[in-house]
Queue: 3 jobs
Job 1
Amino acid sequence: MSTKNIMIVGVGGQGSLLASKLLGSLLTDEGYDVKVSEVHGMSQRGGSVVTYVRFGEKVYSPVISEGEADVIVSFEKLEAARHLKCLKKGGKIIVNTQEIDPMPVITGAAQYPDGIIEEIKAKGVFVDDIDALSLAEKAGNSKSVNIVLMGRVAKYFDIPYDKWIAAIEKNVKPQFVEVNKKAFELGYNA
């Protein structure tokens, strides 16, 4: 099996690191060689956070280069546009339709761009856009956006649903397991 590359991109505080931990754990349990690498920007101030998850028979490097990502999971629309160059031809982007203003927008130096998802689709890219925030709130915790998105990602993997649930139970604090299982289910069935 060739190495598969997944980028998880978002803004600090959205739970992208838990999502990558869950995915890495699941893939390791499935018998793959897995490398996970985290790149923290100004995450504590709402800056970009990027995580690479690479898996296959044997993975030698944790880093995904431009044009190598099979899947990009974006926790925010602008982050999807920012990392589009990393997607390989024929790759997929799963994107939360939420907008989180970056610092230039907050300070009034720039405006949040309109039509981001439409522009990405116009380039011929497969985009699965989902309102993960609304689904997380429906599950009972707005911070479960990450798990809603993992539920959506699961649709594109040939790994049984119950194994994803087991990974949630293994990687999420006990008091948050039930709400995250509900969030996963909502993302999976959206």
Job 2
Amino acid sequence: MSIELQLSSVFARYAGNQTTLTVKGNTVGECLDDLFSQYPDLKKIFLDKNGNLLRAFDIYINGTSAYPKEMTKPVKDGDKLHIIPVIYGG
């Protein structure tokens, strides 16, 4: 399965200066595993020590938030994933 993954330009330097990447998997978690196998430096940016997505990020599948349980959400060929930094403040 071929999934398009969009990264914020802030993280492009960790992914060969690319913001649009192709990953494979049947779930968001599998797609991220494929991403991290290609670009290992991204893993420490996006995941905690238990392999969970850090709360500072949200993942969207075709424009819809995958939260909660984003790592187990299924994806299909042609889907588009976006990893979006969450902005906190008040």
Job 3
Amino acid sequence: MSEWLKICPLEDIPRLGARVVRTAQGDVAVFRNAEDELFALADQCPHRGGPLSQGIVFDRRVSCALHGLTLNLDSGAAQAPDDGCAKKYRVRLDKGVVFLNLGA
């Protein structure tokens, strides 16, 4: 059975930014774009392992702060011509509170 973890109020995640959640599976970055959409990816760039949470969020993408690799926040997949993928997690908003699901 999947379990949703209560993370924080939406306002605690900056627009065009991220909040890091430390889990037994590793750090997860929860992103918020300009339209208040939420996304969650493993906080590790597939290129060199840098923290995606420190990247630049735009549209539905994040650009790694270290080397500029751009990932699609919907899927975690790198944007061409780059390759690689960050693990994606389910995230939801319920009554202004952000929840994260670490299950499959």
